[in-house]
From TrEMBL:
This protein's name: Thiol:disulfide interchange protein DsbD N-terminal domain-containing protein
Residue ranges occupied by any Thiol:disulfide interchange protein DsbD N-terminal domain in the UniProt entry: 16-123
Species name: Puniceibacterium antarcticum
Length: 245
C-alpha cells in the first residue's frame, strides 16, 4: 500500500536567527487521512526520527489547524488530502549548510488503518532566502494564541472520578464560527484522556469536561500549568496553554 501516501521535504529558507524553516509535505490518496499530534481515540500519533541528519541539533514540528473526523462512533483529529508541517531546524554549526534526514512513522486510515513509514532527505542551504509560499501558507494556518483569540480566563477544577479525575474547564473567550470541538492534552504522557464534552454556558463561557486516568491505574496529580486546550471551530483553532486556576 505504498501508494497511499507520499512525502517530500520542502527545503525552505534560512531565517535571520540562523535557524532554517523547512517543511514535511505529505500527500494522501483520495479517501485517506493521517493524524495530528494528538490523534484522538481512533488515531495513531506520528513519530519522527531525525537520525542521520548532518549539522542538525534540533527539529521542531509545527502543526497547522487540523480537522475533526467522526467515523463508526469514534472521533479522530488529523488531515485529509495533504498537509504541510513546517519544521524549524536548528544547526549545530551556525551559518553552514544542513542536511535533514527523517524517518516518520504514521497512521493512515480510510475504512481500515495501516501503519506507514516514509523517509525523506533534503539539503538545506545556508544561502537559501526565497520564501516558499506553500510553507508560508501552512504557517498562516497555525492556531491562534490565547492573546490573539482574546481569551480572558481559563478556570480549571478537578473532582475524583473512579480511579481517575474529572477535569472541568471554563473559558471566557469569544464564540467561534460553527460548532466548537476541543482537544485536551497534558504534559504527562502516561495520562489517558477521554473525548471532551464541550458546550457554551448561559453566560457565554466555553465549558469542557473530560475524564483523566493514569494508564497503569496509579494515583497521579494533575499539573494544571501543563494542560493544553485546542478549540476547533469551522476551519480555525485556538491554542491555550495552562489553566489560570
Amino acid at each position: 500500500m505504498s501508494n497511499i501516501i507520499s512525502a517530500e521535504l520542502r527545503p525552505g529558507w534560512r531565517q535571520a536567527d540562523g535557524s532554517h524553516l523547512a517543511a514535511l509535505h505529505l500527500t494522501l490518496a483520495p479517501g485517506w487521512k493521517t493524524y495530528w499530534r494528538s490523534p484522538g481515540d481512533a488515531g495513531i500519533p506520528p513519530e519522527f526520527s531525525w537520525q542521520g541528519s548532518d549539522n542538525v541539533a534540533a527539529v521542531g514540528v509545527n502543526w497547522p489547524t487540523p480537522k475533526i473526523f467522526h467515523q463508526s462512533g469514534m472521533r479522530s483529529v488529523g488531515y485529509a488530502h495533504e498537509v504541510i508541517l513546517p519544521l524549524r531546524v536548528v544547526g549545530a554549526t551556525p551559518g553552514a549548510d544542513m542536511r535533514l534526514h527523517g524517518v516518520v512513522e504514521l497512521g493512515v486510515c480510510s475504512d481500515i488503518c495501516v501503519p506507514q513509514t516514509v523517509e525523506v532527505n533534503a539539503l538545506l542551504p545556508a544561502n537559501a532566502q526565497l520564501r516558499d509560499p506553500m510553507i508560508a501558507g501552512a504557517l498562516a494556518d497555525m492556531p491562534f494564541s490565547r492573546a490573539e483569540a482574546e481569551v480572558k480566563s481559563v478556570r480549571c477544577t478537578v473532582e475524583p472520578s473512579g480511579n481517575g479525575i474529572t477535569l472541568r474547564t471554563e473559558i471566557d473567550m469569544p464564540i467561534g464560527k460553527g460548532g466548537e470541538e476541543t482537544v485536551i492534552e497534558t504534559s504527562n504522557p502516561l495520562l489517558w484522556i477521554s473525548e471532551p464534552k464541550t458546550h457554551r454556558a448561559a453566560n457565554g463561557d466555553l465549558i469542557i469536561e473530560t475524564r483523566l486516568a493514569q494508564v497503569e491505574g496509579n494515583a497521579f496529580a494533575l499539573d494544571r500549568s501543563g494542560v493544553r486546550i485546542t478549540v476547533l471551530s469551522d476551519g480555525h483553532a485556538v491554542d491555550i496553554k495552562g489553566c489560570d486556576g
